[in-house]
Each structure stands twice: as structure tokens, then as C-alpha cells.
Amino acid sequence: MSGKSAAHCGASGASGGSGDPSWGDKRLASVGVGDVPTKHACKTVCLEVKFDILKRHDKGEGVSAITSALHLAQSIVSTIIKKEQAIKAAAGKVAIFTASCLTWHRETAMEELEWMLRMWVEDQNGRKVPMSQAIICTKAASLWDELKV
Question: How far apart are CA 30 and CA 17, in angstroms?
């Protein structure tokens, strides 16, 4: 398995901030006073690629050689090698051929709750209403009760 698209299995990069295409898509937007930096998108590495990395490492191939061959960051490969036992344990719980990636998916109701809560908080901030964690938690609980119905 070679090539960038094969190694990442649908991973997406963060979009750059300067608008200059020469910077690539990995550069963060420049941050000034009041600006909010953009977040890096999480990359999902397929279980098949993780096992390929572990197999190459067991054969004695170095981390830099693996990163070059699979077009992955050195930190990703090092983390996979460090978490070898956890990856093998998680893979033992699922059939390898039926599950290409180990990922976590959230319910659409939870995403809707987060969106509604964010809109409510922005509205309260616009009105300059003082808020605390307890108030936000109470509102989140009431919105969740509404969504369950």
C-alpha cells in the first residue's frame, strides 16, 4: 500500500489561513487580537495501515523510513508504535476485515445539542448577560430534555 491517499484513508487536512497557496494546507491562520485560531483536523489512520506500520517496525525498519514510505508524520508513526498493545487489543475486539478504521461517532442529537447551546451562548453574550458554568449546564440539560422528546 503506497501513496498518500492509501495511507490516510480519507483523512482531511486543516485549511490554511494566509490564502497564499505556496504555504500549503497545514499552516494556521495568523492570530491577532480577538482572532480565534483554526483547529487542525484530526487524521484517521486505518487499522490496516497501523498494522503495516507495526509489521515494518518489527522487521527492523526505522521510523523515518516508515514515514517516508507511507507519507505520514513522524509523530503519528511514533504514537502508533508506542500504543502497539492497545491497538492490538482494540483490533482483537472487532473483525479486522469488517472494520477498516477504529473511529468514534457521535449521535446527531448530541451535535444538534451543541449547536443549539452554542447559539444560545452567543445570544446571551450579545445581550451581555452574565453567565456561569452552572447556568450553561442547566440550559444544556433543558435542551437535551427537549431533544429527547
Answer: 7
* Amino acid found at 40: H
Q: What is the pLDDT of residues 18-50, one digit of tens each?
A: 444 444 444 444 444 555 555 556 667 888 888
Record the cell numbers describing residue 43, joined without a space: 487524521
The answer on 62 and 135 residing in a single domain is no
CA separation for the pair 51, 80 (Å, rounded): 9
Contact 54, 80 (CB under 8 A): yes
In a domain, residue 44? The reply is yes
CB atoms within 10 A of CB 24: 9
d(CA 140, CA 148): 12
**Following DSSP, what letter does each residue of 2-38 receive, concatenated?**
-SHHHHHSS--PPPPSS--GGG-SSPPPP--TT--PP
Q: pTM of whole model > 0.85?
A: no
